[in-house]
Write a structure and sequence with these properties.
Blueprint lengths: L4 E5 L17 E7 L7 E6 L6 E3 L20 E8 L9 E2 L1 H11 L7 E5 L9 H5 L11 E2 L1 H9 L4 E4 L12 H7 L4 E4 L12 E7 L7 E11 L1
Helix pairs in contact: 1-3, 3-4
């Protein structure tokens, strides 16, 4: 069955220099035992929301599903990829009209699918200063979803949204987009890589988090499956 698909790795590699929300890495790797002792054993120290990662509903909504409570069919689904040919500006908001234009060209967004934007902001990875883009007002600026676009995607029945940026919103007080999506059980995937290799439609996305009890965020191995 997999022979009918090309598989694309949509995941950034974790290392000690990658960008995170705070602007510093937050990832450490330590060798506890090495080969001269029989084998290598390692310890990792990191925040949950690092690299290519998933936000579960419990990230913002108390009592909502955490990572281990997500069903597999919430993690593997058809995917629509809105790709911009010209890099989006740091304050660009993907609009409802952008999505309607996408549907006019590629067909209506399927209920139970993922919707992902490729703004080309990932060209700055792994430059933390440029990727996080923290300005004098202490906010991070990168292409984001508009609230209207998120409302429309929810009305279309998506199960998750994704972006090649740090977040689907630039850090507005209260994080309204996070709250809106997560209280509806719509998961968020951040810092996706290699989206330029994905078609607009007729593909699948799998986001596979570490299954940790009560976790609200987790790094994922994100994979795109393209029909040959």
């Amino acid at each position: 069955m997999l022979s009918h698909y090309s598989i694309i790795d949509l995941t950034h590699t974790l290392d000690t220099s990658i960008p995170t929300w705070t602007g510093r890495c937050g990832f450490e790797s330590q060798i506890l035992v090495d080969y001269h002792q029989g084998c290598r054993v390692m310890r990792f120290n990191m925040v949950g929301g690092i690299g290519t990662h998933i936000d579960a509903p419990a990230h913002f909504i108390q009592g909502a599903h955490s990572i281990e409570q997500l069903k597999v069919d919430q993690l593997i689904a058809p995917v629509n990829v809105l790709r911009f040919d010209i890099p989006c500006s740091e304050k660009y908001l993907v609009s409802k009209q952008d999505i309607k234009n996408f549907e006019a060209k590629h067909g209506e967004i399927e209920k139970g699918s993922f919707f992902v934007i490729h703004t080309l902001w990932d060209r700055f990875w792994p430059d933390s200063t440029r990727f996080c883009n923290i300005q004098s007002d202490k906010l991070r600026y990168f292409p984001s979803y508009s609230y209207e676009a998120i409302e429309y995607l929810a009305s279309q029945g998506v199960i998750g949204i994704g972006t090649d940026c740090l977040s689907p919103e630039t850090g507005n007080e209260g994080f309204p987009i996070h709250n809106y999506l997560l209280e509806r059980g719509i998961i968020i995937i951040e810092n996706l890589a290699n989206l330029y290799l994905m078609p607009a439609s007729n593909a699948f996305l799998a986001v596979l988090p570490i299954k940790i009890k009560s976790a609200v965020e987790s790094p994922v191995r994100a994979l795109g499956f393209i029909q040959k």
